[in-house]
Amino acid sequence: MQAHEKFEEPSATPVKAPLLVRAPVSNAPALKSVVNDEVLVVVSKLKAYIKDRSDMNTSADVMDVLSSKLRKLCDDAIASATRDGRKTVMARDF
Asked: What are the structural domain ranges in the chain?
């Protein structure tokens, strides 16, 4: 051992191994098959629903906003399933 190196005695206190915890959804890896800004709804069906319910038209930018809200809902549901130790997102997670 060199003079400038320091030797430390091993700790008498046992070190606990860290718990294995899944990464939060916000730190999830990049999406594999769905582009992050891809529309997640069937546009024609949503437009038809709005038209039937209100006789109103639907602006094209609604799809992006709605898809963002769906992503947030899904991310929250994924986090719920993860907290419960499941690999399946269920209706109760929403």
From this structure: 59-94
